[in-house]
Each structure stands twice: as C-alpha cells, then as structure tokens.
Amino acid sequence: MTIALTPTPFWFLRHGETDWNAEGRSQGHTDIPLNTVGLAQAHRAALAMVDRGIATIVASPLSRALRTAEIVAEALNLPVATDPGLMEVGFGTEEGKPMGDWYDDWIAGTYTPEGAETFAALHDRAVAAINRATARPGPVLVVAHGALFRALRLALGHEPNVRTPNALPIWCAPPATGRVWEVTPAALPHLPA
User: Fold this and answer.
1) Over residues 134-150, mean pLDDT
2) How does pLDDT run across 57-77, given as a tens digit for each residue?
3) Cβ 40 vs Cβ 126: under 8 Å
4) Average pLDDT of span 137-165
5) Which of 82, 105, 121, 148 is the most buried (most CB within 10 A)?
6) Distance between CA 145 and CA 170 in Å, rounded?
7) Catalytic residue among 17, 43, 88, 145, which?
8) Concatenated DSSP letters for 16-38?
9) Which residue from 178, 127, 126 is spatially nearest to 157, judged by alpha carbons?
10) What whole-number distance in Å separates Cα of residue 13 and Cα of residue 68?
C-alpha cells in the first residue's frame, strides 16, 4: 500500500441496497441492481446532498453505484462521470456467497479468495481513483462500494474493517495535522412513511 490520498476533501456515497446486500452475499464485480429499498435510499441521499455545493459526481460503472449516482445527479442537475477504478473489489470464488469469516484475513493480507483482488491492490486502486476524482472541480461526490470504502478507510487513517451503511453520504476531510482524516456522515432527511 504505497499510494497516498491527495489532501483534498470529498464526499463518499456507497450505493443503495441490492437484494444481495439484504441477503448478506458478496457482490464484487457481479452487477446486481438496486432493489426497491435501495432506490428509496438513493432518493433520500440525493435530498441530503442538495445545497452542499457538489460540483462533480464520479461513480463506479457497476449499475448499483451508477444508478445511485444518477438519482443524486438528477436532484443536483449534474452529469455523472464514471471511473472503472471505483468498481467494487473482485471477490473471485466468494462472489454470490454469504459473507464469510475470511474477510478479516483478506484485509490483513493473509488470505485472498481464489481469483480475487488482494486488499492491498484494492487500496492502491481506490486511492488512485479518488485522487483522479478530486483533481476535478470540487467538492466532488464519489459513488462507489462498501469494500472499496474499507480500503479508503485505511488510507484515511481509520480502522478499515467497518461496514459502511448503504446510501449514507460521508464527508471525508484531510486533517490539519497528523494522518487521520475527518470522516463525518451526513444527516439524512426523514421521509414520510
């Protein structure tokens, strides 16, 4: 893990829920669409992003992230750019299976499922993609995936193996001193029942 984040603040948004999220299955590169809950979550996230001054939206090309980004973009009247570097990690033989107890070992670098990307490779790919995104006019909103944000959490100086909720916008700001970034979830609006 050799690549460092450019010290430019950005918003991160994990995609809305999919059926595989609800079932606790590893998605990886498998292109699973948002479910009804995920669509509602994306609309709620869009409301939370209004009046934040977002200038650029960059998303993973996988449909669950791209559709989430498009819903936010509609509310902000912005286009969506895609970057394949923001795609979710390839989980290899674990894709489609229930999330297992191998995840800690994968993050520690002591185990990688057959055909999967290492956590170190994901880290460097994710950091490079964020650096490309934050080189655009800001503030930038990045819409991507949960395991990818685990790698980013490490780059931000935080414990990596923390689950990121679906469709919760997170403000990531570099520290004035030290190496631990500010990672602050946005308040989400209440929607009528």
Assistant:
1) 97
2) 999 999 999 999 999 999 999
3) no
4) 96
5) 148
6) 13
7) 88
8) PPBHHHHHTB--TTS-PPB-HHH
9) 178
10) 9
Pairing of β 170-173 and β 10-14: antiparallel
Q: Where are the alpha helices (DSSP H) in the chain?
A: 19-23, 36-49, 63-76, 103-108, 119-134, 146-155
Residues 6+ apart with CB under 8 A from 42: 15, 16, 34, 67, 68, 71, 72, 167
Give the tokens for residue 29: 């590169």
* CB distance 180 to 21 below 8 Å: no
Which of left, alpha, beta for 130 (phi over 0: left; psi -120 to 50: alpha)? alpha
Look up 29 and say whether it is catalytic: no
Q: Is 145 a catalytic residue?
A: no
pLDDT, averaged across the chain: 94
The predicted structure's pLDDT at residue 103 = 86
- Percentage of residues in the chain with pLDDT exceeding 70? 98
**DSSP bridge partners of 82:** 59
- Residue 35, pLDDT above cutoff 60: yes
Helix (H, G, I), strand (E, B) or coil at 106: helix
Mean pLDDT of 22-33: 94
